[in-house]
Fold:
Amino acid sequence: MLCFGFTFLYVPMVLLIVYSFNYSKIVPVWGGWSTRWYTVLFESEEVWAAITLSLKIALMNATFATMLGALAGLALVRFKSFRGRTLFGGMISAPLVMPEVITGLSLLLLFITLGQLIGWPTNRGITTITIAHITFSMAYVAVIIQSRLTGLDQSLEEAAEDLGAKPFRVLIDITLPLLAPGLLAGWLLAFTLSIDDLVIASFVSGPGANTLPMLIYSRVRLGLRPDINAMATIIIIVVAIGVCLAGWLMMRQERQRQRDMQLASGDNIKQD
Amino acid sequence: MSNNIDFSERPWLDPEAEPFIRIQGLTKNFGAFTAVDSVDLDIYKGELFSLLGGSGCGKTTLLRMLAGFETPSAGRVFIDGTDMTDVPPYERPVNMMFQSYALFPHMNVEANVAYGLKRDGVAKGEIKRRVHDMLEMVELGIFSKRKPHQLSGGQRQRVALARSLVKKPKVLLLDEPLGALDKRLREQTQFELMNIQDELGVTFVVVTHDQEEAMTLSTRIAVMDEGQFVQIGTPTEIYEYPDNRFVANFIGSANMFEGRVQKRVDKNLVVNVPALKGELIVEYSAEIADGSKVWLAIRPEKMSISTTLTDTNSVNVLSGIVHDIGYLGSMSTYRIELEDKKIIDITYPNQHRPRDGKHLAEWDDKVYLKFDPSNVVLLTR
Amino acid sequence: MNEDLIAIQDEHKASFFVRLSRSLQSSWKSIVVAIPFFWLLFFFLVPFLIVLKISVAEALIASPPFSPLLDWSEDGIVMIRLVFDNFTYLWEDDLYVITYINSVKISTISTLICLLIGYPIAYGIVRSPPTTRNILLLLIILPFWTSFLLRVYAWMGLLADQGTINNFLIWLGLIEKPLRMMYSEFAVYVGIVYTYLPFMILPLYANMEKLDMTLHEAAADLGAKPTITFFSVTLPLTMPGIVAGSLLVFIPATGEFVIPDLLGGGNVLMIGRVLFNEFNSNNDWPVASAVAIALLLLLVIPMMIYQHIQGKENQP
Structure:
């Protein structure tokens, strides 16, 4: 079953990669090995513009969503009661389960209404897409931060305060460093969510602003295209390298932790 | 009146002494639940004071109010004459050693110990010197560059102690300081803790649920139950002269008999105990009306056991059948079933090796238990 | 006397500063809450209310193409005009009703297929040795980080009339004419199961990982056969994982747009796609909003169950 499952998951991706090296213009018909579609892909200014736009949005989104999501997670775990807590809790978790089409539609309607009322935004594009992405990805960050904070021993923060650190200092010295892995995970997730999003971006984008998924979508709607296979291959390879690197780092950390534990128990024996 | 008494070891007996920590009517409510219920307490300089009680008795909440982590619902806290009730934790001359030790996992031992001094803006050179001295004192000098997770439990405990002592606090609060250590390490650390306290003269307030720990460490113990003190006293007072049935049962174990005062004979009282269908004689000097309902507590080790009755005229003799024996080496505990089915426990030292493979008493032997009137505690509540 | 006065003033000052710094501390707290709170209020709740409002407005051929909800009548009283025509329209038009039923049917069946495939995979991962386990887990997560759109696209290449599967089957001689797989419900099922499978496996794995494996030994020791052990021990204990995974597949699949659009073509009606078309092609915003609200009503119960589970898990 494991084998079947992983075959099911990976065969389509492998085929995607194989056909990106196909000379033939018609994807499933093999016409010999070639890298011509990579050249075609990189010669297209449209593609470069889409990549740049998507990266810009993803970077801004990841950064702001991490900050807002961290604040939200902090508020929900550390402040037990404040006015509007229930509403806040509802609003922070609703985007997680809200269908994309609804989020996209509602934000577009907001931007249009705002445009009529206060004259902003005059045109839709990078700003509106970023705002939309922050809104739904901060919810994911908040969940990560929330679970990390819940697992954190609160006496660490109390100990710092007890030793003379004012609350803000505690946040800088203790809470944030200990949240760092969660913040990093949140940032990466927000980045991925943003660079992967088609539906919401399609709603809130205006003419001329095409993100990478929007570009891919407009091309593949009409059928198979070898240059898209090339694009997919690049994305899969970049992600695979990233994930493998993360996996290797995690494994190394685990080994280090085991060594440390041996160190600690070794001293114990010497002491006795 | 008692001018010739040396108060230096027992400041709480000195009517002139100024308390170092004064707690007045301190109360903490969590919603409808009252964790600490209007308690008053004076702790004196240099004391090693223990708050002892089961879980949920309010001892930790009381400690956290001393540290400033909980805001009292009512009452005041004074430390060294200053009202600290509204002072935030980071401005109190008090440090705390946490039950989990709460060592900062992302800082090494040195940085952990130096953290408090840095927050006070102490000069760099002095921080270095003081951290070094403190780590030497707890014998962790060579581990100064290690991270907490690279240390054993006992070492972590000493880092936590060093970190909370390096700021020279007026009061050190310790939340179950030995709770996370295994038994052997615990005994060793217990004495280290007492030495350090003696050396530095810092006032210690310890929260613990372990009565042995409290007995060995403390100058005085406050036994807590349901947010209130049930007795405050030295370890000897608490154990030998418990104030009430809760303390008698909570500290050590006690065999308890319910009865009524029959009459007074000199310094003794004759108490009628229905469960024994007889009387017990108790030494008791305070006033008490005949007919009062009382409880008699006898510690298991305050009785002697024998298979023969030597003196038929002596008082406070009970007879029964050995129901169970627990052999502990240096002593044995016997569970005796008295004639009317009441079970009592007694511990007796094994002064002799078994003779003919037999101990002093064996299962189902008929035995006699004897105890002196002065060893019986009379409780009125 | 004078000194006393100064001392009193000093004390007063000190307490003033204490109070000031206290209020700054507490305002610092409210800032932490306020920033994300108002962001969500403004960019999540308000837009949602706008959708709600437009769903009860009338369609107009204008820009924006709907009637204002709040009218200032002459005597200065706000008149709220609610038009439920849009909802009546949805109810009376067979197309929408069929689309709803179809969406629920497709996402339910997809969820069940995901569960049937995902459960043994999650179980297999949990039972494998620790080092292999981490690698397998990474392999499950990896597709999630790659583009969703491109994973759907991969199946366009496999399922097309001239696609890899048809070519392979013809080469084997099993079929003579290509099977029609693209632009059908079958293709939509394949697409949903393929893209949402990790969402089923991960919660199941998280749940099974916590499961005490000695329970199986205990059950076997007490005389239960493997199948009995599975139905009496494993299945009930993994129920929270099953529910969480199923909801994580069911909820987004119901509102899915990309998969029915790329793999289903015009033949498969799903609500997300209808909404998108209603909005972009027909420019009928009130109906699109009404479709959105109706979709939300459909999902509100599963969403609440999911939030309830999440809430329980995040309790300290």
Notes: Chain B has two domains: 11-249, 253-379. The helical segments of chain B are 59-67, 109-119, 124-137, 153-165, 183-200, 211-217, 235-240, 245-250. Chain B has a mean pLDDT of 88. Residues 183-200 of chain B form the longest helix (18 residues).
